[in-house]
Structure formats: structure tokens, C-alpha cells
Amino acid sequence: MLEKQRATIDRIDRELVKLFEERTKTVEEVAEIKLENNMEILDSGREAVVIEKVQSYLEDDSLKGELADLYENIMRISRGHQQEWMSKRNS
Ligand SMILES: C=C(O[C@@H]1C=C(C(=O)O)C=C[C@H]1O)C(=O)O
What we know:
This protein has helices at about 5-35, 45-55, 65-90. By secondary structure, the chain is mostly helical. Helix 1 packs across helix 3 and helix 2 packs across helix 3. The radius of gyration is 16 Å and the shape is flat. The protein starts with a helix and ends with a helix. The relative contact order is 0.12. The mean pLDDT is about 95. It binds the ligand C=C(O[C@@H]1C=C(C(=O)O)C=C[C@H]1O)C(=O)O. The ligand C=C(O[C@@H]1C=C(C(=O)O)C=C[C@H]1O)C(=O)O binds near residues 43, 47 and 75.
């Protein structure tokens, strides 16, 4: 009954995981630059811009709130990853 839709979701998830890994590797490069330049992990201005930007890519504006929620979580995880990465680098 749900096979076709779930196969589509599985395909999308595979792509999302690939992109998540690519984003996270890039975030590690950001962490390295921040560590070298004594910069704060959190950049609230940039986070606000990211959310506005991704919302502008939507075709369905009714998803704006959910997309903001998703990106708030992605960036929270991103900051946690930078923290971990910096701690390992310093140990
Ligand atoms: C990756 C960065 O670090 C943090 C995480 C962000 C992100 O994951 O997009 C954005 C801003 C920062 O709070 C950055 O400064 O660009």
C-alpha cells in the first residue's frame, strides 16, 4: 500500500544524508578557520540570513515555519559538531 511512497522517501533520504555529510565536512572547514582566528562558533546574523535564504527557495510558502524549524535544528547540530571538532583538535 505505501511501498511506492516509502521507496521515494528512501531515495530522498539517501540524497539528504549525502548532502548532510557534505554540509558537515564544510562546517568542519569553518570550525578550523574560526579556531585559527579566535572567532565565536555562533553567528546569529548569519543564521538569520540562512533561514531567510532557504525560505526564499520554497515553492510552497506554507512550509516556511517548518523549514525554519528544520534549519534551526540543522544549525544547532552544526554548532555542536564545531564544538566537538574544536575540542578534539585541541586535545
Ligand atoms: C557554519 C557556521 O557556524 C554556525 C553554524 C551555521 C550553519 O550551520 O549554517 C551558521 C552560523 C553559525 O552560527 C558559520 O558561521 O558559517
